[in-house]
Design goal:
This protein is α/β, with parallel strands linked by helices. It has 14 helices and seven strands. The longest helix has 17 residues.
């Protein structure tokens, strides 16, 4: 067992920055003897589920995280930097300890895109404070707030930032040091010394962007694609090192000969992180029933809405129509999809109320009388003798698929 854990790793989901395939990363990790590994893509969790499932397959403990972008002031402030980002955001690594931490990571990632996006998906300390439960934070790379403030605004500014993070994360905040043979990283000595002065835990990481050392050139070409430059352009984004690969524990101990404690402490973090993601069952949003239907089940409410819609769409309701509708509703109840139908109806109704053009409904869903009665589809399945079973039946393993087109 390796007495070190990589806690700062970027897969290809760090778009045009990370260059690591998840399966290959985990295969390499097993070859190097690692039993735990983290995923910390830039500002997103796109690869988390793939990483989790694949890690479980190969017997590696998955540590779920992300390298967040922290706005220097409010996430709503879009004036704090020039083109390209500048100081629009500091880096901060967040790792989930448990289910609550995992949920908070997802919440923060969504907020970053929906509220804080400015060149990059950003959050701020206000929402960090609100959603910090179950999370570990580390101070990240040279673009982290602690490193930047120490070397650009002085020690006291760095201490002030540290105290803010301690107020949010308490004993789950760690200072991070790195060494990729980049001259500017000599500044980490001051960070390491500051950690000792303040009795703060410090970890050492490698900022992994590609799998093996020889992949550096290919990664450099990818950065050129991101920045729309050529490899011959001297004024372009470039990592002046070949060390951003998944190193063995022995290699890490050679790099941090005098700071072995910072490597060993990564095991402490790995032990704290125990996220279990429930897989294999559908996780659908819950449809909230109107207050006047509080004593109804979802199936009861769907039945009432479907029969109301049936009467609106047909002048005469025949026993055959009622039999068909009851049959479809029984299958929907058996398969547990009442909420799904109600949710789809809800957003289609919203579109029509707000003059957003929406299609008639495509594919096998057009064979459902329930969908037609609810106004989800606009093609009469009885008139065209369309089969409900093509859309949904008790033997169907996969979830039904309602194809709807919306105007932008």
């Amino acid at each position: 067992m390796a007495d070190f854990v990589h806690l700062h790793n970027h897969t290809h989901f760090s778009l045009l920055d990370g260059a690591i395939d998840i399966k290959k990363m985990l295969k390499r990790a097993t070859e190097l003897g690692f039993t735990s590994l983290a995923i910390t893509d830039h500002g997103n969790m796109f690869g988390v589920l793939d990483f989790y499932l694949e890690a479980k397959k190969v017997g590696i403990k998955p540590i779920i995280g992300m390298e967040a972008y922290i706005a220097p002031a409010s996430r709503f402030d879009k004036r704090s930097a020039g083109k390209g980002g500048g100081q629009a955001a500091f880096h901060l690594v967040l790792l989930a300890k448990n289910e609550q931490g995992y949920k908070n990571l997802m919440k923060l990632s969504s907020i970053a895109y929906l509220e804080g996006f400015y060149y990059k998906p950003r959050i701020d300390k206000e929402v960090l404070q609100q959603y910090s439960e179950g999370l570990i934070a580390t101070s990240a790379c040279m673009k982290g707030e602690i490193f930047y403030k120490y070397h650009n605004r002085g020690k006291q500014e760095a201490i002030k930032a540290i105290e803010e993070y301690l107020d949010i994360f308490g004993e789950d905040f760690y200072l991070e040091i790195q060494n990729h043979n980049i001259p500017e990283e000599a500044g980490y000595e001051a960070i390491y010394k500051l950690a000792k002065e303040m009795s703060l835990p410090v970890i050492a990481t490698n900022d992994v962007h590609y799998l093996k050392k020889e992949h550096h050139t290919s990664h450099d070409v990818m950065l050129c694609i991101q920045s729309r430059k050529t490899i011959y352009d001297q004024n372009r984004m470039k990592y002046n090192t070949t060390e951003l690969y998944l190193k063995s524990a022995d290699e890490m101990y050679q790099v941090f000969k005098d700071q072995a404690d910072a490597l060993e402490r990564t095991l402490e973090i790995a032990e704290k992180c125990n996220v279990e993601i429930e897989t294999g069952k559908l996780l659908l949003p819950k449809f909230p029933l109107p207050p006047e239907y509080s004593d109804y089940t979802l199936d009861d409410f769907l039945r009432e809405e479907a029969f109301r819609g049936l009467k609106e769409r047909y002048e005469t309701i025949t026993p055959e129509m009622e039999e068909r509708l009851n049959y479809e509703l029984s299958v929907i109840q058996k398969t547990g999809y009442a909420g799904y139908f109600l949710i789809v109806k809800d957003f289609i109704d919203f579109a029509r109320r707000n003059d957003i053009p929406v299609g008639l409904g495509r594919g096998s869903a057009a064979g459902s009388l329930v969908a037609y009665s609810l106004g989800i589809t606009r093609v009469d399945p009885l008139r065209y003798d369309l089969l409900f079973e093509r859309f949904l039946n008790p033997e169907r393993v996969s979830m039904p698929d309602i194809d709807i087109d919306f105007c932008f």
